[in-house]
């Protein structure tokens, strides 16, 4: 496994494109699915935990092509639920997108916070 990318940051809207860029630079190839997932997970933290929350993003790339993305925030009580938004709803599709592009995903809750993770296959 190559060295992981580990980013400690504040959950701010300006961080979303910066982290997408860092993910692409770390992988060294276009990776729209991974960038989509990191965008959605960071946006969830901003919207549901709060702007300015402390966040850790970890990206692991295994030799077999698997990519694991983890986003940790300090809210130990939040639980992610995929909603079925109406056709006119402007939000509520993030976890549906994550579910559509990731091989698998889940949530670890601890007294110190939560980590939302997903695994994807790297596409050439």
From TrEMBL:
Keywords: ATP-binding, Kinase, Nucleotide-binding, Serine/threonine-protein kinase, Transferase
Domain Histidine kinase/HSP90-like ATPase: 11-116
GO MF annotations, alphabetized: ATP binding; protein serine/threonine kinase activity
InterPro entries per UniProt: Anti-sigma-factor_SerPK (IPR050267), HATPase_C_sf (IPR036890), HATPase_dom (IPR003594)
Top-rank taxon, per record: Bacteria
SUPFAM superfamilies xref list: ATPase domain of HSP90 chaperone/DNA topoisomerase II/histidine kinase (SSF55874)
Any Pfam family: HATPase_c_2
Tagged with keyword Transferase: yes
PANTHER family: ANTI-SIGMA-F FACTOR RSBW (PTHR35526:SF3), ANTI-SIGMA-F FACTOR RSBW-RELATED (PTHR35526)
Protein name per Swiss-Prot or TrEMBL: ATP-binding protein
